[in-house]
Amino acid sequence: MTSSTPASTDTEPTGGNPGLPEPSAAAVAKQKLTSPGASAAAFVIALLWTIPTFGLLVTSIRPEDDVKTSGWWTWFKNPTFTLENYNEVLTGSDTDLATFFINSIVITIPSVIIPITLATLAAYAFAWMHFPGRNILFIAVFALQIVPIQVTMIPLLTLYVDPPFGLPSLAGKFWTIWLSHSIFALPLAIYLLHNFMKEVPGELIEAARVDGAGHVRIFTKIMLPLMAPAIAAFGIFQFLWVWNDLLVALVFGGGNLEISPLTVRLAELSGTRGNDWQVLSAGAFVSMIVPMIVFLSLQRYFVRGLLAGSVKG
């Protein structure tokens, strides 16, 4: 009498757990990013990054005598608090950072909106519209990223000061700073948004075309909603870069303090009032407030935009 035994299989699911499906690439990436080691490293980096910022905040709220006679860490032994430093730096006759704060906002907002608007349109054209020389033109746009900004400043400034065709000079106006920031941001913006658009399934575009949708409708009703995380991620990058910029505003602003941002004024204060640490720290913290608010309020869109299309499954 022979006993029947179940036939043994030579293969089993990978991963060491028979019967369980293999985890997706997204799950594996999430597991690595949320491991105890990664969490500990992130905590250490965040702590090292926060301590100087906290020291700057403490210095900005200490009286002048305390700032010049002891380090900021001694504040915990004898806490003292004053807003005089912020009052002086914002409304003082030789500082008046409130005016330059408004200038930074006036410079930053158009310098973010203009390149995003142009880049989304150009990225859609490169991704889903067919025209002669499309690939060559896209390679040329991509190659512009390797051109150093410093190389372009003198020719661009010359063009602003003495424009062709008898056009009026744009030197010393907000327009020059807006256009310059937009020009420098467009190659990277087009490249990033184009790569994101190419991840959209072609079947979705074909289905919209079958339903009678043209390029305008596809762009506004399909692409823009899908691109919101990528647009937000680049918008944060551009906002932080423009807000913290000194070189572009200093060169293309022509030294005109009426259109100079916070960074230009703070650079001047560091030279004229280099010993007034309480004033410089208050001014530096004022310049940090808006970027911190923007990043913290939009960080979920920032992370989604960075991870968009990075993993599948």
Key features of this structure:
flat; mainly alpha; disordered N terminus; disordered C terminus; single chain; 14 helices; 313 residues
**Multimeric state:** single chain
- Radius of gyration, rounded? 27 Å
Number of helices: 14
Largest β-sheet summary: none
Order of helices and strands: HHHHHHHHHHHHHH
Helix content: 55-70%
The overall strand count is 0
State the end-to-end CA separation: 51 Å
- Categorize the overall geometry: flat
- Structural class by secondary-structure content: mainly alpha
Characterise this structure:
The chain is mainly α and 313 residues long. Helix content is 68%, strand content 0%. The protein is built from 14 helices and no strands. It is flat. The N terminus and C terminus are likely disordered.
Describe the structure concisely.
This protein is 68% helix and 0% strand. With 313 residues, the chain is mainly alpha-helical.
